[in-house]
Amino acid sequence: MALNLVKLCVGADSVEDLENWIEFRRDEMRRAGETPEHRHTTRMIPRRRDELLGGGSLYWVIKGNVQCRQRLLDIRPFTDADGIERCHLIFDPKVIATEWQPRRAFQGWRYLTGADAPPDVGQGRAGLTALPSELRRELADLGLL
C-alpha cells in the first residue's frame, strides 16, 4: 500500500477553486516559457521519498474535509536564495475527487497511510461531484456524506 501526504489547501474554498488555481499557474508557466507542471513548495522535505513516489498522492483538506487528491510525481529538494532548504512537491495536475473525510486544522503536511486515506469517489457516488460544493459541505456537516 502506498504512503501519502495530507495537507491543508489554504486559499481554496472548493475543489473547483483548486482546479482553477492549478490551471492558472500552469498557464503562467507556459507564458514564461517554463515547463507547465503543478508544484507546491514546502520547507520540510519528506524523508520517506521512495514510499511516497511508489504510487502515493497528496490529499487536500479543503474547508475542514479531505475532498480530493493529486498523485505525487516527484519530490525535488533545493536550497533557496536565502540558503534555506526547501522542497518542490510535483503533482499530476489532474485532481481526483475523494469521499469526504473530516480533518482538524494542522500546520505543514502529515503522512497518511493507504489504509487511512479516504477512497476515491466511486461509480455509485460519482453524482456527488456534480453537486455544488456548498451543498456537499452542508450535507457533510449533517453527516449525510
CA-based shape: globular
Q: Count of helical segments?
A: 3
Q: Can you write the helix and strand succession as a string?
A: EHEHEEEEEH
Q: Whole-number radius of gyration?
A: 16 Å
Structural class: alpha+beta
Q: How far apart lie the N and C ends?
A: 25 Å
Largest beta-sheet characterization: 7 strands, mixed
Question: How much strand content do the residues show?
Answer: 35-45%
Query: Segments where pLDDT lies below 50 for 5+ residues?
Result: none
Helix content: 10-25%
Mean of all residue-level pLDDT scores: 87
Number of strands: 7
Secondary-structure blueprint:
Blueprint: E1 3-8, H1 15-31, E2 38-42, H2 49-52, E3 57-62, E4 65-79, E5 85-91, E6 96-102, E7 109-113, H3 133-141
Parallel strand pairs: 1-3
Antiparallel strand pairs: 1-7, 2-5, 3-4, 4-5, 4-6
Summarize the structure in words.
The chain is α+β, with helices and mostly antiparallel strands and 145 residues long. The chain is 21% helix and 35% strand. The protein contains 3 helices and 7 strands; from the N terminus they run βαβαβββββα. It has helices at residues 15-31, 49-52, 133-141, and strands at 3-8, 38-42, 57-62, 65-79, 85-91, 96-102, 109-113. Strands 1, 2, 3, 4, 5, 6 and 7 form a 7-stranded mixed beta sheet that branches. A hairpin with a 2-residue loop joins strand 3 (57-62) and strand 4 (65-79). The two termini are 25 Å apart. The mean pLDDT is 87. InterPro entries: UCP032025. Pfam families: DUF1489. This is DUF1489 family protein.
